[in-house]
Every structure is written in C-alpha cells, then in structure tokens.
Amino acid sequence: MLINSRAPDHCFVNRESFISLIPLHQPTMGLAAAKESIFNVTGKGKAKIEICVNGINRNITFEDALHTPELHSNLISISKLAKKEVKVKFDQHEARVRSASSAVIMMAKRCGCLYVIETTSKTPIALVSQTKQQPAAFDT
Fold first, then answer.
1. What is the pLDDT of residue 139?
2. Mean pLDDT over residues 120-126, rounded?
3. Which pLDDT value is given to residue 115?
C-alpha cells in the first residue's frame, strides 16, 4: 500500500479489503501516475486494513475508498488524510502517521524509495511521496 501525494482518493485493489462496497453501474476511468496509464474504478465504499503499531493490533478504516482492481498496489491519499487532520512525517528511516490527538496510528520503515508498513495480513503496505519540484538545499 502506498501513501501517495498525487492520489485524490484512497484506492484499494482487492474486494476483500472492503467492509462495504457499492458497485458502480458504469466503471469510471482513473489516471495513474505512469505516463498515459489509465485504470478502471469499479466501486466505492469503506475499506479496512489491520496493522500492528508498537505491538498493538489496530484496524484502520478508510471512508469513500475506491475499488481499483487494475492498479498494482493500494494507494492512500495524503490529501484525504489531511482533511481528517492526520499528519504524515517522513524522514530518512521511517514514516509516522499521527492522529489529530498526536497518537501514532501507522508506522513504516524505509525500503529504498518506499516506506513499508507491516500489516497483520500477508499483504505488505508501503508509503511513498513524490514531487515534481526540484530539491532545495538546506542545512541541518
């Protein structure tokens, strides 16, 4: 699962990820980050993942998630998280997702260019962020 700064909606590949799902009578098209790449959106509903944070299992639900079976991975929208007052902080080793009350609700370890969340299921989840802007130099 990828946290994506360009995704306007949460997207889930597998039907099994949904607690509730309303199929769309006519699938709509989505535009993927890959150049000239499109995918079908076949439904909308509430999706759930189970993760372990600091030894505690948590169920995280995503309202108004899209069912996108043609994508290669699930996408979590940073803009949708921000609307819920959730904060995502990336550093060179990990990413932490915090609730409005500052509780850590998801953690991810950096693996190459991705931030991977350990889930209690067999499906790995990863966080990624991307920008089209040139990097700015700064002193630490």
1. 46
2. 57
3. 74
The 10s digit of each residue's pLDDT in 62-81 is 999 999 998 888 888 878 98
CA distances from 127 to 19, 24, 111, 119 (A): 22, 28, 10, 13
In sequence order, the 6+-apart residues with CB closer than 8 A to the CB of 18 are 12, 43, 45, 46, 47, 48, 65, 67
- 8 A C-beta contact, residue 116 and residue 125: yes
- For residue 24, the one-letter residue type is L
Spatial neighbors of 126 by CB under 8 A, at least 6 apart, are 1, 2, 73, 108, 111, 114, 115, 116, 117
| Alpha-carbon span 13 to 78, nearest angstrom | 18
Domain boundaries, the chain: 2-127
CATH architecture of the domain 2-127 equals: Beta Barrel (2.40)
